[in-house]
Amino acid sequence: MNRSPIFSSGLELGSFVVTSNVLHHSWAAISELYGEIHEPPSWDSPVRFRTFQQPNCTIIAFVTWPPCTKEHLQGQGRGDLVSSSALKETFPLFEFLCTKTNPRFSINKPAIDLFVSVRGVLNFLKSQISNKPLIITGHSLGGSVASLFTLWLLDKINLATTKRPLCITFGSPLIGDDGLQEAILQYSAWNSCFLHVVSDRDPVPRVLISPYNPTAPELASPTNEYKPFGTFLLYSELGCACLEDPESVLVLLVATYSEGSGFDYKDIFQQLNGNVICKDSTKVDEWIAQPLQAGIITQLGAIGLGRLQQLQQQSIDMNTLIRQTERRERKWLIRRREVYDSNVLSEMKVYMAQLEWYKKCCEDEEIGYYDRFKNAFDSSDIKAQGFKKSLTCYWIDMVDEVEKKPQRNGAAFTTRWLFAGTNYRRMIEPLDIAEYYRDGKTDYMAKGRSKHYTQLEKWLSEDEKPASRPNNSKKQNLAGGLTENSCFWAYVEEARISCNVLSNGESNDMDKHKRSLIVFEADVMGMLNNYAVSPEIFLNRSSFMKWWKEYLEIIRKGIMGPSHTSPFTEFMQNRQYRQYAPGCL
Amino acid sequence: YQVQSAVTDRKQIVFTGHSLGGSIAILATLWFLEKFFKSDSKIPPLCLTFGCPLTGNRIFSHALGRENWASYFIHFVMRYDIVPRLLLAPIPSIEQEFESILQFFAAKSTNESAGGVPEEASDFHMIVMRNAASVATHAACNLMGSTNMLLETVTSFIALSPYKPFGTYIFCTGNGKLVVLRNPDAVLQLLFYSSQLGSEREVAEIPCLSLHQHFGYESELQESLEMQDVVDLKQLETLPLSAEVTGGDSATINSALNDLGLSTRARLCLRAAGVLEKRKQGNKRNIDAKEKDIHNAMNELETSYRAYCKLRKVGCYDAFKLQKNRQDFDANLKRLTLTGIWDEIIDMLKRYELPDDFEGQRAWVELGTRYRRLVEPLDIANYYRHLKNEDTGPYATKGRPKRFRYTQRWREHAEKMPAESSGESHFWAEVEELQAKTGNGEGFEEVKERVLKLERNIQKWVNGGEVEKDVLLEESTLVKWWKTLPQHHKLESCISGLIKN
User: Fold this and answer.
1) Are residues A178 and A269 in the same domain?
2) Contact B134 A278 (CB under 8 A)
3) pTM, full prediction
């Protein structure tokens, strides 16, 4: 099947935003805030803010007084960036943005300074938020503060249960470098909270972009440049369009600037509303047949780059722009498909079924799949290894994805998903342990355990309902079940090591090993009473039974003290475990 | 009675109406379709509306598509007539001005020359158009497959009108031409874009026109009849994007589009609607191609697995639950293959990625029913084998996958059965649940009603051949459980006869 054509919906999204009234409400709040300020300008307390409770939403507005100008931003040191490592010591509120893959970011100094000046009221503002949808807005540098406030808030609220806030800035300068951009962009839910409205006449949002930024040449590397994030609504007197691709945004921010005085953001509502219900005047040439191309041309027309000469003047290559947008849209489509792909999931189910079967076949051979896999000698073990590998790759990715986007998993992170993960962990982790100890390594729990198992286990314990008493059906169905503690075999291996040490009698840690054996004994007994282990551990050739024989030897030698007994040793010596599998303890 | 006699005379019935009368005509047609057309009459009705306000939401439109009824509805819309667009604005937003507009309409319909256009007309028009723009652009973003999640964020701040068009729309350009459009997504776009203002100059005229045109259908259609100039927009995905296309077929289409005042931007939206429709058809072809895989896997289960179970003298359910032999494992793999295919289909349906009529197709309804009867018991066996009832809850309420819920509904709908009455494929779950409740010989009285109901159903289904007889074998979970029930109950039970034989 040939690929279906791609569209660019920037114009539609732009119109939708305009007709939704959110811009109107936000600007009304900002002008009311400006109207309240009577005192003469001073730089002592430059940030002003207020919460507006509207019938259907809450608006938090920020402005600075006096309003910021182009000259102000171009002043000495105004373009400086503060790095996250410097912030860590003085103002650690944004540490959460750093991840392993993206360890550093930098924020514009004036913006962060302004934000620091309101740190005392952050919690107060947060307390003003109700269940109503929330708009955070600001003009110019006030918009920068609004962005930072939103960012801070995103870390504090649970997006699985709360609606996403919307941050609308009007004519705000860029506030961060590529590190900040990356930190926000990797969570598409976060990125979707930011809408930056920029007029073609407003110099302020463009000041910090390198060609205009006087301090830029002094900065050593190109990584220290300001980068945009979120969606930009660019508008001219002809119309408006929404752009999300950060590279296109940078190029077009520069290209659309037309110097001229006397503009005011308050005019845009009337004008854009008019535009929305009027016919779009941009025409395309007859030879253009691709909707993506036509879509981009109409968008450029709306933001004031209609005529081709104008484009050439600004040295924008139309084809590059189209290619960029196209590549980006395709990339997104592929990513979305992956998320939805139920084929992968059903493939994983098949692998799990295969392993279940492998486990069953092993039991028929009286060995248990743990030991069979550890000794790995024929093709069925190699096949099992293949299934295990695919499953592990899949789940490592899944866990990673969930960790990275905790806010998006209100839907995906269901009990059923967790159940599948737990099942996977109980089935596969023993095989990992088998491989680990096969290679002669020790102390799996501390040194060998993969992080995704720990994480899955943690989620389960957070989700766990009060433990239920083992009931009849559980006892009867024991045969097919898995051991609940997926690290069981690691404990067995450690216990065998302890036995080994004790029987050789050449260690200084004899007491430690004895203690750990006693603890292990009691643990196993506890699990047995709860029917939490699979009866396969009692199979003739299993490591557990080997351990028991070794341990019995040690007890007989009196190493564990004279006449050591416990409920567990009695259980084993009386061969009560034979009644375990049928559920008749 | 008139309808009944027309049906007896084998005449076609035409329902028609102007303005709100159109909505009534639509509802009357639906009534007719449900009452007569599905059973006795094979002559399709026709519903013609003129300047009719939108009448249903997305579900409404989808349901008509599923039944293949959409083609019986034809709606005529004048290019600027406000009424068909009216409900794209939520009622509270237009309430204030609506009163005087209604008064104007009332006067106008009784007396041609009654009064001038009310002064609210301009505001009213503005509000309706802005809301129409909201709905249309929101829909267009989705048609175009926008990946910007800002759309979602902003949507939570506004109330969008739920109304959606359905059926065939015929737009009157105002100069005698007629433009025919069937794709409901495209109709929504055209409702907005065709009534956009050409320039600021029109701000004064159009609001008046938008009210007057509501009464202009007669003269306009008179003119159209004489001109016989009808353009049918079919291949939406190849519409010319530029207003200046010349030559061939596209010139005719282009001039029609120009007559409706469609800019490049509007044409892009129509194209997007066309592409989406085409993609749905493509998806359907892909799914239809998998029908063979489904058949193969199911045949395998039906013949070899059933035969193997018969040989072992156990029902499929119990054999599968035990998972003792290679054959059980193979059956499990087949089950998983089928799960994969069906889940994909259901996923597509949920995302509206298949044509509306998919769920109504006879072949798929039957295949779904066969699949459900064959495989759902295995799914239930798996569910209870893994004790999922303990952490997830009872299968029927918590664990039942959509692939079985949907297919059951298909059959119930196609055969006009009451909802939830075709549950023959998941009676095992009820057996398991009741077994857990009466396990130790107690608790029978509490669930007596459920037991009785289950027994009645089993009797009906086994006798009707909807459930295989192997469920009644000596060793089956059902029989073993039934035997633990109190003696006095067993004596009177309606399935005692079945079980003894």
Assistant:
1) yes
2) no
3) 0.82
